[in-house]
Amino acid sequence: MWTTQAFDVPGAHQGFREPSSSRAYHLPAIPFFLFHCSLLHNTKYNSLCYTEISFLGLPSYPKSLCHPPGRHSFCPFRAPAFALGNMNSFHQWELLLHLLLLCDIIPGFIWGFLMFAGFEGHFPCSTQTLTTQQPMLSWRRMRKMDSRAMESPSLWEEALKLIGAEKGVVHLAAAAVLSAAWAPWAKQEGKPLWKLLVDMDPQTLVSCIDFRYITDVLTEEEACEILRQSQVGKKERVEEQMLAHGYPAYTMSCAWLGHPDATLKQLCSEALKDSWTRFKVKVGANLQDDIRRCQLIKNMIGPEKTLMMDANQRWDVPEAVEWVTKLAEFKPLWTEEPTSPDDILGHAAVSKALAPLGIGVAIGEQCHNRVIFKQLLEAKALKFLQIDSCRLGSVNENLSVLLMAKKFEIRVPWGFPVCPHLGGVGLCELVQHLIMFDFISVSASQDRMCEYVDHLHEHFKHPVLIREASYMPPKDAGYSTEMKEDSVKRHRYPDGEVWKKLLTAQGN
Amino acid sequence: MWTTQAFDVPGAHQGFREPSSSRAYHLPAIPFFLFHCSLLHNTKYNSLCYTEISFLGLPSYPKSLCHPPGRHSFCPFRAPAFALGNMNSFHQWELLLHLLLLCDIIPGFIWGFLMFAGFEGHFPCSTQTLTTQQPMLSWRRMRKMDSRAMESPSLWEEALKLIGAEKGVVHLAAAAVLSAAWAPWAKQEGKPLWKLLVDMDPQTLVSCIDFRYITDVLTEEEACEILRQSQVGKKERVEEQMLAHGYPAYTMSCAWLGHPDATLKQLCSEALKDSWTRFKVKVGANLQDDIRRCQLIKNMIGPEKTLMMDANQRWDVPEAVEWVTKLAEFKPLWTEEPTSPDDILGHAAVSKALAPLGIGVAIGEQCHNRVIFKQLLEAKALKFLQIDSCRLGSVNENLSVLLMAKKFEIRVPWGFPVCPHLGGVGLCELVQHLIMFDFISVSASQDRMCEYVDHLHEHFKHPVLIREASYMPPKDAGYSTEMKEDSVKRHRYPDGEVWKKLLTAQGN
């Protein structure tokens, strides 16, 4: 059993720091940062550094990346809501928070799916709780007690489970930590992450997966076998497909709920010029509005191009069926998140009701762990499976879901294509690696597509490259998570240039 | 749409305060406290105070309890793990944290299911982030913008949903806030909460329930009808059953995993002397140990008394079936939490496999919201439904689950008896109100029982009263949540007397 002991690290708070008069505090960042620090910092047992990384669920992690801890620093980055454009009122409150952790133990950027309330009513945040004159951080030192230490090689301490195992903000934090561990691994190999995964032997890949609670549908041996079988044709899929043509995408940039019709037309027109052929529309606020907007889009894109709909959990089950039936004339390929992301049987009921209309159900962006996906597949509750690079436990848990989807594919005619979610805000940069790996090493099937939102890419050192409505494989080594220093500096909260202006304007 | 605006409240941090040299910070307390403050504080729109309480999901809340905000203070209480006795190694890391919020808006105690790592590896916590020289809290002011403001009368802001709707630490925090609102309401009426609920007319009770995502199985009208029908025989159930005999309970105090056999025998012997007839045993660490311990207990309690087993999510589905089958000779009434609390279909599979052995499945303590319970009932994934007063969204969400259980009861021979979970630590004090309400006003059925753990009751002003292995109905007005001031003072972290000694010993 791992034991933990709290201790202070003087000077742990060096680095980028909020002024001490900062007025707010972090919500998700705290468990995230604590988790990160608790897992990685080790002042006494240098030799255990590698064991700690094993504890992260990466037993094959390169030892050369583990070395004595040093300075940690971090800085919050926020893009105010207005910069996101006039989007869906549901998303009106989104501010993006990136935590950049520059860390000598694992150099890299921690990138998490951390959302906050919007600009006008911004969710109070700062890093003051994380960096103060007196060290406020308590570091958790992991000590191996006995041979059972590796019994549950997981990020989850028993106590944290009681808050709600593998869900909520702590799971998001764990995902961020794991993603930060993958990035430098890929960098050290001189490969983009998708290539690191593609080149990895099945045994090593499978060693990164937590199979707890899914062995009734997928065992380690079966996972290995899937990966071994997919070696056939791999080279061709890399070179003739991915490198040559990229991975198909669809756009979510045109039809947010908040867009007036004129904007919708303009954006749709631009997207058509940019060769987009698949368009997703937000629905669910008002049926008449939905009918009008879908008609508008359909008129512009024509019958050959694809339309999908996204309700972002608006409805109960009966309402979902009724509402989508009234939109069936627009022949959407799928309706996304019709109801609660926790409602597996509800989505199964919606799927069954809409199947005669030729409309599938897509879901996954808020499905919090592999156990939910397991059941969605078992219950045939979805037609299109939407992973998320940061909602699930990073690459590790996404691997398990991709493999379960492959395992289940033969049970249904449609094969459960994986069509990842991403709402922009850098999720594109991450998930592109996963989908390319999925095509090359797991599914070998391109009857699928990945979401694309034209959102905040300019803040990334290695933004996605879209060509002919397809994701082109990243070439730079790493996980594409690095942000531009100037962007971070300008958007630092609350004293970065961008926020100073906003907060001054708000005060007036 | 509600809008929010952040602003500071000078002096918001008055009251009990941790020394500024405190070294750690709160994890669950932060979203909890923020939530509470954000919902209740209103410096400008006094007339909206009542609306804010409506937003809490309590539209009938007495206006007299809403008045201008004043001083807020709070203090963490912790019981170190060693005080919990030699319990289950799974629970070894439990520290109980109570946040007492003495608040002029809603006088009362906020009590939340907040668990932390155990003493030796205690999860770093303090309230420094909540109370500092410079106000760190940002308060969120709710302003009603238009007629759609009451469209989604729920605690859930859209942005918070993105962290993971109605699950994890934020849902626990919301539950704590709601529980704190119920307590003074009962007090003002001069009634214990169970009586407040029993005396409430169906319409008012139903107005406290959030029916989102469950209308496919239970509508407001159906809920009202269930409550109306249960009026028959209510008086007799109160007087002849509850007041005279109390509510049946079972004990979890004897057989934690960490107990050596001698302790197990001693505790079991004492429990038998105290007239306990139902005993639960923790299982799942080691099969041979489980066989030995179950045999030991069974020998002592005999064939007429009831044995149950609790695995605390130890197994995958196949392992659960295999393991419990090997314990079937002890004829357990149920096996509890055999697998992941997210695995509805997994529990359905276990239920089906164990049914021929006469063993039911009990689950619920970590089922995070009503949508999960809806599916557990739909899938017949459980035989015994275990609500939790603090895991679900307080009284409000528990009401919805009790009513769904009643609605589904006719679909199965066993009727889905509600047998609440509580791990001690004050949960007994709260859930007793819910089960009495359930018996009197919903189920009218006593083929059910409530967990009891002899744990930390001495810190409560109005601890549970157990007589002949039954919960006697509380008589004091309120929700039994109040803790003794001296207990709070002594266990305040880190400068209370108890913690000072522990931390000094730890340092040596």
Automatic annotation (TrEMBL), chains A, B:
InterPro entries: Enolase-like_C_sf, Enolase-like_N, Enolase_C-like, Mandelate_racemase_C, RHMD-like. Signal peptide: none annotated. Keywords: Magnesium, Membrane, Metal-binding, Transmembrane, Transmembrane helix. It comes from the Eukaryota. Its cofactor is Mg(2+). Residues 261-357 form the Mandelate racemase/muconate lactonizing enzyme C-terminal domain. The chain crosses the membrane at residues 95-119. SUPFAM superfamilies: Enolase C-terminal domain-like, Enolase N-terminal domain-like. This is Mitochondrial enolase superfamily member 1 isoform X2. It comes from Odocoileus virginianus (White-tailed deer). The gene is ENOSF1.
